[in-house]
Amino acid sequence: MTEKIIIECPKCSKKVRVPVGKHIKFVCPSCSEELEYDDRNVNEKQADSESSENMKKPKERIGFVGHIILILLSLIIATPLIVGYYQYLMWIPINSIEIRMILIAFLFAFSLYILLFKFRNIALGLMIFLLLKMGYNQYFNKKGLTYEKAFRSYVALVEKKFENNPNLIKDVENAIVLSVESDIVSSVDYNSTEVKQFSNQASIKYFSENDDRLFREYGNIVRYFSVFKTINGAWQYVSDPVDTEHYAKASESLKSMAGDCDDHSILMAACIKAVGGQSRIVWVKGHAFPIVLVANDKYEFNIKVKPILHELFTDIYDDNFGVVQNEEGIWLSFDYTKKYPGGPFLEKEVIKLIKI
Questions:
Q1: How many CB atoms lie under 10 A from the CB of residue 144?
Q2: Whether residue 121 sits in one domain with residue 40
Q3: Residue 278: per-residue pLDDT
Q4: Closest CA to 333 of 295, 303, 298, 290
C-alpha cells in the first residue's frame, strides 16, 4: 500500500491525503482550488525538468538534400564492400543472382546510411570539407588529392581484389599461336563422337543435385566445372617416351585418362569446346595447362564466378585464383595439378598460348 501524508488546502484548510514521494496535481474537494504537491527528491525533479525541455526543443532536420547526400555516400562506401565480400553471402536463400545482389547492396547501403545519419553532422561536414579541398587542389595544387585522383583511387579500391591477385597473368597476346596445322590444335578433336559423348556425360556428372538453380543462375560455367572435376578426378600422369614429344588426341586420352600435361590440356580443351565453351592451352617453362573463358570482365568474375567457385569447391582458401586476362575476357586455369578450377599457377612466364 502506498504511504500517504496529510496536507492542508491553503485556501479552505481542508485536510487532504496525498501519496509520499510523488508529484501530483489535484483539485481540493471542498473549495475546488487547483493544487499541486511535489514530494520528489532533487534529482528526480531535475531529470523531469530536463526531459520537459528536450521535448520542447524542435527536432533537428537535415532536409531532402541532406538525405540524398547521405544515400550517395552510403552507396559509394558500400560498393567496394559488396564486390569484395559478395561470395561470402551465398547462403542467402534466393535463387536469382540479380535479386540476391540487389538485396545485399540494399542491406549494406541501408546499414551505412543509418550509421551516417546518426553522425550526420560529422559526415556531412567532412564531405563538404573534402569536396572543397579537392576542388582547390584541382586548380591550384595538383600534387594534392584532386577529383581525378580520388576517382582513380576509388576504382582501384573496387578492383583491388582482382588486380592484386599474385596469380593474375595479363598481356599474353604476343604469345598466341594461331596455326591450325599445329599438332596440338589438330589433336583437339572436339567434334569426334567419342569426345562429344564423353563431354556431355562429364558436364552433368557433378552438381546435379542443384542443377536447376545453378544452371539458371550461372549457365554453362557449372558444366565446365563438372567437366573439370570428372577429368581431374580420374587423370593419371604418365610421361612421354624419352626424347619424344607425343600429343595424344583427346579421343585417345579419354579412354585411358592418362598422359602428361599437354595430353591433359588437349583433352580438357576439347571437352570444354565440345560443350560450348572457349578454351586455350598455355605453355610455361616445363608445363602446359588449359584455361577456360569464364567471364567477360573483372566485374562479372567477382560477382558471378567467385561465388560459384566457393560454393562448389570446398578446398578454396583464398581468392587468388589462377586467371589470365586479355581483351577477350577472363580465363580460369583448369590445371590437372589443382583440386579446383583457378588453382595457383606453377609458373607465370608464358612462353606460348595456343588458340583452339
A1: 12
A2: no
A3: 95
A4: 290
